[in-house]
Amino acid sequence: MLPSVAIIGRPNVGKSTLFNRLVGKKIALVDDQPGVTRDRREGDAKLFDLKFRIVDTAGYEDEDAATLPGRMRQQTEAALAGAAVALFVIDGRAGVTPLDEEIARWLRSSDKPVILVINKVEGKQAEDTIYDAFSLGLGEGVAISAEHGQGMADLFEALMPYV
Ligand code: GDP
Ligand code: MG
After folding, report:
1. For atom 18 of ligand 1, which residue has the closest CA?
2. Which ligand does the CA of 31 lie closest to?
3. Per-residue pLDDT tens for 76-115?
4. Is residue 64 predicted with pLDDT exceeding 70?
5. Does 43 count as an annotated binding residue?
6. Is residue 60 a known part of a binding site?
7. Beta-carbon contacts of residue 105 (< 8 Å; ≥ 6 apart)
8. Which residues fall within 8 angstroms of residue 4, CB to CB, at 6 or more apart?
9. What residues line ligand 1, using a CB cutoff of 6 Å?
10. Beta-sheet pairing, 85-91 with 41-47
Protein backbone atom coordinates (compact mmCIF):
# COMPACT_ATOMS: atom_id res chain seq x y z
CA MET A 1 0.00 0.00 0.00
CA LEU A 2 1.33 3.43 -0.92
CA PRO A 3 1.71 6.05 1.81
CA SER A 4 -1.00 8.66 1.73
CA VAL A 5 -0.65 12.46 1.60
CA ALA A 6 -3.60 14.72 2.53
CA ILE A 7 -4.03 18.17 0.99
CA ILE A 8 -5.55 20.52 3.58
CA GLY A 9 -6.47 24.20 3.39
CA ARG A 10 -9.21 26.79 3.10
CA PRO A 11 -11.20 27.20 -0.13
CA ASN A 12 -9.61 28.55 -3.29
CA VAL A 13 -5.97 28.22 -2.32
CA GLY A 14 -5.32 25.72 -5.14
CA LYS A 15 -5.68 22.33 -3.43
CA SER A 16 -7.44 20.70 -6.39
CA THR A 17 -4.99 22.25 -8.86
CA LEU A 18 -2.11 20.71 -6.89
CA PHE A 19 -3.95 17.38 -6.67
CA ASN A 20 -4.42 17.31 -10.45
CA ARG A 21 -0.79 18.20 -11.08
CA LEU A 22 0.46 15.39 -8.80
CA VAL A 23 -1.95 12.83 -10.25
CA GLY A 24 -1.19 14.00 -13.77
CA LYS A 25 -4.86 14.09 -14.73
CA LYS A 26 -7.70 16.51 -14.21
CA ILE A 27 -9.68 14.43 -11.74
CA ALA A 28 -10.52 17.15 -9.26
CA LEU A 29 -12.64 20.05 -10.40
CA VAL A 30 -10.80 23.36 -10.20
CA ASP A 31 -12.98 26.39 -9.85
CA ASP A 32 -12.80 30.05 -8.82
CA GLN A 33 -15.84 29.46 -6.64
CA PRO A 34 -15.17 28.03 -3.20
CA GLY A 35 -17.04 24.86 -2.41
CA VAL A 36 -16.49 22.93 -5.60
CA THR A 37 -14.78 19.89 -4.10
CA ARG A 38 -17.76 18.23 -2.47
CA ASP A 39 -16.13 15.15 -1.14
CA ARG A 40 -12.63 13.79 -0.87
CA ARG A 41 -10.92 12.54 -3.98
CA GLU A 42 -8.00 10.14 -4.03
CA GLY A 43 -5.50 9.31 -6.72
CA ASP A 44 -2.10 7.78 -7.35
CA ALA A 45 0.44 10.58 -7.42
CA LYS A 46 3.93 10.75 -8.79
CA LEU A 47 6.51 13.41 -8.12
CA PHE A 48 9.82 12.58 -9.79
CA ASP A 49 10.49 9.09 -8.38
CA LEU A 50 8.20 9.43 -5.34
CA LYS A 51 4.93 7.53 -5.54
CA PHE A 52 2.11 8.04 -3.06
CA ARG A 53 -1.67 8.23 -2.66
CA ILE A 54 -2.94 11.79 -2.63
CA VAL A 55 -6.21 12.90 -1.03
CA ASP A 56 -7.87 16.17 -2.05
CA THR A 57 -10.29 17.40 0.57
CA ALA A 58 -13.20 19.76 0.44
CA GLY A 59 -11.80 20.68 3.80
CA TYR A 60 -12.87 24.00 5.10
CA GLU A 61 -15.28 24.94 2.32
CA ASP A 62 -17.72 26.00 4.99
CA GLU A 63 -15.93 28.76 6.87
CA ASP A 64 -17.83 27.86 10.05
CA ALA A 65 -16.20 24.47 9.90
CA ALA A 66 -12.96 26.03 11.08
CA THR A 67 -14.35 26.80 14.48
CA LEU A 68 -17.24 24.32 14.64
CA PRO A 69 -16.87 20.56 14.38
CA GLY A 70 -18.75 20.57 11.08
CA ARG A 71 -18.98 17.86 8.47
CA MET A 72 -16.19 19.34 6.38
CA ARG A 73 -13.83 19.43 9.29
CA GLN A 74 -14.69 15.84 10.14
CA GLN A 75 -13.86 14.90 6.57
CA THR A 76 -10.53 16.70 6.83
CA GLU A 77 -9.83 14.87 10.06
CA ALA A 78 -10.64 11.55 8.38
CA ALA A 79 -8.27 12.30 5.50
CA LEU A 80 -5.58 13.35 7.95
CA ALA A 81 -5.99 10.27 10.11
CA GLY A 82 -4.89 7.94 7.33
CA ALA A 83 -2.15 10.20 6.02
CA ALA A 84 1.61 9.92 6.51
CA VAL A 85 1.91 13.68 6.11
CA ALA A 86 -0.31 16.69 5.40
CA LEU A 87 0.28 19.37 2.80
CA PHE A 88 -1.22 22.53 4.28
CA VAL A 89 -1.78 24.90 1.36
CA ILE A 90 -2.12 28.66 1.66
CA ASP A 91 -2.58 31.28 -1.07
CA GLY A 92 0.57 33.33 -1.60
CA ARG A 93 -1.41 36.09 -3.31
CA ALA A 94 -4.11 36.40 -0.66
CA GLY A 95 -1.65 36.38 2.24
CA VAL A 96 -2.08 34.64 5.60
CA THR A 97 -5.75 34.82 6.64
CA PRO A 98 -7.44 34.25 10.02
CA LEU A 99 -8.80 30.94 8.74
CA ASP A 100 -5.26 29.88 7.74
CA GLU A 101 -4.18 30.71 11.30
CA GLU A 102 -7.06 28.68 12.72
CA ILE A 103 -6.21 25.64 10.58
CA ALA A 104 -2.50 26.03 11.43
CA ARG A 105 -3.31 26.04 15.15
CA TRP A 106 -5.35 22.90 14.72
CA LEU A 107 -2.64 21.17 12.65
CA ARG A 108 0.05 22.12 15.17
CA SER A 109 -1.95 20.44 17.90
CA SER A 110 -2.25 17.19 15.92
CA ASP A 111 0.76 14.90 15.89
CA LYS A 112 0.79 14.60 12.09
CA PRO A 113 3.79 15.91 10.18
CA VAL A 114 2.76 19.02 8.25
CA ILE A 115 4.42 20.61 5.24
CA LEU A 116 3.37 24.22 4.73
CA VAL A 117 2.86 24.94 1.03
CA ILE A 118 2.62 28.52 -0.21
CA ASN A 119 0.88 28.36 -3.58
CA LYS A 120 0.40 30.90 -6.39
CA VAL A 121 3.92 32.27 -5.98
CA GLU A 122 4.57 32.90 -9.66
CA GLY A 123 5.40 36.56 -10.10
CA LYS A 124 6.29 38.81 -7.21
CA GLN A 125 2.95 39.24 -5.44
CA ALA A 126 3.65 36.41 -3.02
CA GLU A 127 6.93 37.62 -1.49
CA ASP A 128 5.29 39.14 1.59
CA THR A 129 3.29 35.97 2.22
CA ILE A 130 6.40 33.79 2.12
CA TYR A 131 7.79 35.97 4.90
CA ASP A 132 4.51 36.21 6.88
CA ALA A 133 3.94 32.46 6.70
CA PHE A 134 6.66 31.97 9.33
CA SER A 135 4.10 33.21 11.85
CA LEU A 136 2.03 30.05 11.31
CA GLY A 137 4.60 28.13 13.32
CA LEU A 138 5.02 25.40 10.72
CA GLY A 139 8.46 26.27 9.47
CA GLU A 140 9.61 28.04 6.38
CA GLY A 141 7.22 26.43 3.94
CA VAL A 142 7.62 25.38 0.34
CA ALA A 143 6.77 28.00 -2.28
CA ILE A 144 5.08 26.59 -5.37
CA SER A 145 2.86 27.43 -8.28
CA ALA A 146 0.52 24.46 -8.72
CA GLU A 147 -0.80 26.00 -11.92
CA HIS A 148 2.60 26.57 -13.51
CA GLY A 149 4.50 23.66 -11.96
CA GLN A 150 7.05 25.77 -10.11
CA GLY A 151 8.62 24.59 -6.87
CA MET A 152 8.03 20.88 -7.53
CA ALA A 153 11.67 19.98 -6.73
CA ASP A 154 11.36 21.71 -3.35
CA LEU A 155 8.07 19.91 -2.70
CA PHE A 156 9.79 16.63 -3.57
CA GLU A 157 12.55 17.30 -1.03
CA ALA A 158 10.01 18.19 1.65
CA LEU A 159 7.92 15.05 1.03
CA MET A 160 10.82 12.63 0.66
CA PRO A 161 11.30 11.91 4.38
CA TYR A 162 7.62 10.90 4.74
CA VAL A 163 6.64 8.95 1.63
P1 GDP B 1 -9.24 24.71 -3.98
O2 GDP B 1 -10.57 25.31 -3.65
O3 GDP B 1 -8.26 24.92 -2.87
O4 GDP B 1 -9.32 23.29 -4.43
O5 GDP B 1 -8.64 25.57 -5.20
P6 GDP B 1 -8.66 25.27 -6.79
O7 GDP B 1 -7.60 24.27 -7.12
O8 GDP B 1 -10.05 24.97 -7.19
O9 GDP B 1 -8.15 26.66 -7.35
C10 GDP B 1 -8.81 27.87 -7.04
C11 GDP B 1 -8.39 28.93 -8.04
O12 GDP B 1 -7.01 29.23 -7.90
C13 GDP B 1 -8.59 28.50 -9.50
O14 GDP B 1 -9.01 29.64 -10.24
C15 GDP B 1 -7.19 28.08 -9.91
O16 GDP B 1 -6.98 28.19 -11.30
C17 GDP B 1 -6.33 29.07 -9.15
N18 GDP B 1 -4.96 28.58 -8.91
C19 GDP B 1 -4.57 27.37 -8.47
N20 GDP B 1 -3.22 27.28 -8.42
C21 GDP B 1 -2.74 28.47 -8.84
C22 GDP B 1 -1.40 29.00 -9.01
O23 GDP B 1 -0.38 28.35 -8.80
N24 GDP B 1 -1.32 30.31 -9.44
C25 GDP B 1 -2.42 31.05 -9.69
N26 GDP B 1 -2.23 32.31 -10.10
N27 GDP B 1 -3.68 30.57 -9.55
C28 GDP B 1 -3.84 29.31 -9.14
MG1 MG C 1 -10.94 21.98 -4.46
Report:
1. 14
2. 1
3. 787 788 899 999 999 999 999 998 998 899 899 888 999 9
4. no
5. no
6. yes
7. none
8. 42, 52, 53, 54, 55, 82, 83, 84
9. 9, 11-17, 30-32, 34, 36-37, 119-120, 122, 145-148
10. unpaired
Whole-number pLDDT of residue 69: 47
- Of 92, 56, 51, 48, nearest to 72 by C-alpha is 56
CA distances from 118 to 11, 94, 151 (A): 14, 10, 10
Long-range own/partner contacts, residues 18-24 (CB < 8 A, 24 or more apart): 18/87, 18/89, 18/117, 18/119, 18/144, 18/146, 19/43, 19/45, 19/54, 19/56, 21/146, 21/149, 21/152, 22/46, 22/47, 22/54, 23/54
Closest-CA residue to 114 (of 90, 84, 93):
84
Q: What is the pLDDT of residue 75?
A: 67
Q: What is the ipTM of this complex?
A: 0.99
